[in-house]
TrEMBL record, chains A, B:
Residues 17-85 form the HTH gntR-type domain. Keywords: DNA-binding, Transcription, Transcription regulation. This is GntR family transcriptional regulator. The lineage of its organism: Bacteria, Bacillati, Actinomycetota, Actinomycetes, Kitasatosporales. SUPFAM superfamilies: Chorismate lyase-like, Winged helix' DNA-binding domain. The keyword Secreted does not apply. It comes from Streptomyces composti. The keyword Transferase does not apply.
Amino acid sequence: MASLPSILGGLDPTSDRAVFRQIADQLREAIDRGRFKEGEKLPSEAELVEHYGVSRMTVRNSFSILQGEGLVHAEHGRGVFVRPRPPVRRLASDRFARRHREQGKSAFIVEADAAGSHPTVDSLEVKEEKAGQDISTRLGSVRRVLARRRRYLLDGRPVEFATSYLPLDIARGTQIAEPNPGPGGIYARLEELGHQLDHFEEEIRARMPSPSEVKTLQLASGVPVIHLIRTAFDTSGRAVEVCDTVMAADAYVLSYQLPAT
Amino acid sequence: MASLPSILGGLDPTSDRAVFRQIADQLREAIDRGRFKEGEKLPSEAELVEHYGVSRMTVRNSFSILQGEGLVHAEHGRGVFVRPRPPVRRLASDRFARRHREQGKSAFIVEADAAGSHPTVDSLEVKEEKAGQDISTRLGSVRRVLARRRRYLLDGRPVEFATSYLPLDIARGTQIAEPNPGPGGIYARLEELGHQLDHFEEEIRARMPSPSEVKTLQLASGVPVIHLIRTAFDTSGRAVEVCDTVMAADAYVLSYQLPAT
DNA sequence: CTTGCCCACTCGTCTATACGAGTATGCGTG
DNA sequence: CACGCATACTCGTATAGACGAGTGGGCAAG
């Protein structure tokens, strides 16, 4: 690494911009310009204290800004690093097309394999439970539902946590209530049970994660989540499934095709 | 407000959870339980210092956690407040349907009026410029483009900043290059120019805002942005427009309909 | 009564210090 | 050579204090 003064400038005492913001600005710009590359270690707190002639808390304050922006992450005992942009998983709007369902594996496994990643599914939980207000409304005022919870990982990194809710009168006693729903997933089973799927409705929000989501998805600070709620409708117009998904936003790009008609 | 000890508990010195995290946990839980309501003022730093018997920086540290989660926001000289969840704007996937285009006003104005909000559009800029790498690729290797920039506000609050890029050979000299593109917007003009629209492609990402986005959208800390890139294709398969939109995530829910075929 | 100022309270910024805990390296011992 | 420990360096947590600046209410002067 080049010497600090050659990368970072000095402070402007006449500026009304707070010192810790000025430091954050300089570090951010250096990162943007590629003076610090992805995964690279930034100068230590002590070095910056020395360089700028400020106290350590001021430097830490600067780092905390960059952390909130998702630009860097600190590792206890090692240093502060430029956060690498992880490879993203693209979700195409045709990902539930029937033709993708004919094969054996789940959509997640197939896609990940194709992308050369190592996919895993864990924390599988299948149980009957009371539907929350929102789920109940979306499914048409059902009281109890079958909930299928699972977490998806790519190369060991959790990227998505999803829960499917199905009305008991549809799912109870079927393979949908089993941990392994069989080839083509629960959508294939639903169609076999006579619920020909007609269309899906997806609602998308983005927000900062709750503490429990941070834990489940092992999220770095400064990484939002995408909250997707999908409702599946059969040809009779009935909502047959609601899938509530929370995704690490830095791992996904969602893609949709809209007709212009 | 009830007395502090009745709302907030004490600290657990035996816990290995940091004190400032314990305080943040208690405040978060109190907010979730509704002990502090939306827009309500939290106890001041001094009060919490007194209640917990810790130093002021520790309390501020707790607040900064909650701020990062988007739960609270501080106002200089006034206090720390529970951040109200603003009314959200729903974007339906049929928002570009031709029938919505026949009327005079823009989609944004019509929707906002219907929702009882007061819509504004400002920072209008229309100019020719060099296309960036990404835009150029999406439009099919064009070098220069017409860029239309505008910011949308609801009841005075900025919620969205959008830039439309169009190939010069299509847009130059037409009403599309005027500040006011006329009734139905640029999509109506494109169709009049013989570019019958076929479909749109939308890419969605979520991330923390850059400092300039924080400024433009007046974002509170802990609010991510939704980054949407829409490409419009005409019936010949040509990309005729790319619209790059950055939205305040707390102001939007995106909604899509997908066929199951 | 109105105006304007003062003051108390609030958060914002910054310093200086202390100790704890995780990481990595190198050196000395076996 | 291999192992283990000491040590230096890193960030994490917490204290105590100081001054600045925005807000709002009360009080005094006009």
